[in-house]
Amino acid sequence: MTNFKIGYIKNHISIVAVCLLLLGICSQSAHAQEEEENIGTEVVNIVRPYTPTISDAFKIKETPVLNDSVNLQKKKVQYQIFSVPVASTFTPAKGKAATVEKAKPIKLYDNYATLGFGNYTTILGELYSNFQISRTDDAGFFFRHNSSQGDIDGVRLENKYYDTQLDGHYTSRQRDISYRLDGGVQHQLFNWYGLNGAYDNASDEFLATIDPQQTYFSGNVGGSITVDESVFEKISANLRFLNDAYGSSEFNINAQPEFSFPLTTFTLQIKGDVDYLRGSFEKTYLGTTGVDHNVLLAGVSPSLVYFNNDLTLSLGVSTYVGLEVDDEISEFYIYPQINASYRLVDELLIAYGGVDGGLSQNSYFDFKEENPFVSPTLTVVPTSQIYNGFGGLKGKLSNSVGYNLRASYGREESKALFKNNPDFGNGTADLEGYEYGNSFGVVYDNINTLGIFGELNVAVSETFSLGVNAEFFSYDTEKEAQPWNLPDLKATLFSNFSITEKIYGSASLFYVGERTDFLFVRNGLLGSFMENEVTLDAYLDANVHLGYRVNDRLSIFAKGSNLLSDTYEKWLNYPVQGIQGLLGATYKFDW
Question: What topology is assigned to 111-589 in CATH?
Fold first, then answer.
C-alpha cells in the first residue's frame, strides 16, 4: 500500500511540471508572434527536489456489508463413492533377502562319557545321561569312578584308593510349581598309610600284619519343591546314611522350608532348619565302649529385607534349640543375621558388611569328606558360630577387572580340629589298622579367628581369563595349644584360556601355608607317650588341563597335577603322589 501511494505522487508531480513547461512555451511563442522578434532557441531545465510523504493507514474497524441483490444460501452437497475393481497387469519384481552372516549354532548333547588313564595306575571314568520325558519333565543320572593304585615313594603300607559314585535325579517344571527328586550311592576305599618315623626300620613281616584299609558306603535321597507367586517359596529335604568297615553307622535328615511375605517397603523372609543326626561307633580310640551321638537341631530365622537401586539391607535373627536326645539336655541359642551392601559408585565401588552366626551340625560324613584318614572312634557335637563380623569393598575397576576385599572377625564354640591320634604300636600288640599313630581324631575348642581376604578377576579377552585370591588367618585358641591343622595362609591362582577354536585349557596354582599337628608316640599299651608339636611345611601345587576338540562330539584331553613334583604332606605323615599325568577322551552323544 505504501509503494502504491509513493508512485502515484511521483506521476502527479511529473504531469504538473510538463503542463507548466508547455504553458510557458506557448506564452513565449505568442509573445514572439506579437512582437515578431526572434530571440533564439534556449533549453530550460526545471529542477525541483522530490520529497515523498507517506500518509497514515487506518484499519477498517467494521465488517463490510454485502450489497448483492441476490444472497444465496450454500447448499449441502451429498455424495457417495462407488468402488469399482480395476484389473492391473503390473507385476512387481520379486525381492531377494540380504545375506547375514551368523555364528554356527553350538550343538548341545544330553549325554557324555569320559574315560582316562594315568600314571600310578589311575583310572577316571564318567558317564552322564539326561532323558527328556516331556516338555516339562526330565530325568538323568551321573556315574563317576576315580581310583589309583598308590605306589607313593617311601610309603611301605598299601596306599591305593577308590571312589565310585552314582547319582540320579528327576525334575518337573509346571506352571506354578517345580519339584526335583535326587538320590545316590557312593563307595570309597582308603588306606591309613601314614606311619610315623618310628616304623622306618620295621620289618616287612611286621608291616604285613597291619591292615590299613577302610571303606565307606553311603547313600542319600532328597528333593525340593519351589512354588511361584506364593508366600511359601521353597522347601528342600535330604536323608543320608553312612557306614564303614568297622561297624560305624550314621543317619542324618535335614529339612529347610522358606517363606516370604511382601510388605509395604520391606519383605519378611522366614527360613526354617530342622536337622536330626544319629550315629554310633563301636569303640573309642582308647578301646572303651563305643559312643553314640543323637542330636536334634531346630531353628527359625526371620529377617526383614529391603532393597533399591543402591541399597540392599537384611535385618534378622536366628534362634536355635539344640537337643541331645539320649542325655535329655537342651540348649537355646540366638544369633544375629545382619547384612547390608551399598553402591557407592555404581558397579565400580560397592561397600558391604554385616554380622551373622548360626548352629551347624557336624557329622562323621562331613569329617571323612574333609579328611578320609579319620579313625572310626570320633566324638561328634555341633559347632556354634557365636558371631562373625565382616566388612569389605567389591566392584569393577573396568568392564574386565573385578575385585573383592574383605576383613572378618568371629568366634566359634566347639570348633572341630583334626589332631593326630596316639601311636599304640610296640611291635607285638594286636592293634587295629588305624592305631599306629596313622589316623586322626577330632578335638573341640573355642576359637577366635581374624581373616583377611582379597580377590582379583581379570577377563583379558573372550579367550583368556585370570584370577587370583588369597586369605590370611590368625587364630586365638582357648584350650588347645595350637589350632591343629588350620593353615595361616591360603592362595589360589587360576586361568581359563582358548588357544584356538579347537584347543582350550585351564591352569591353577594352589598354595597352603604351614600347619601344626601333635605327634604322639607310645611305647606299648601301658607305656608313656612322647609328645611334641610338628610343623607341616607349606606346599605349592600346580595343575594344568589341556583339551582338543576333534569335532562336535569328540574331544581329547591331558591333565597334569602336582607338576612341581613336591611330595608334600597334606596331613601329618601322609605324603601325596608326585607328578601325576592323565590322558583321556570325552564323547558327547544323544540316545
Answer: Maltoporin; Chain A (2.40.170)
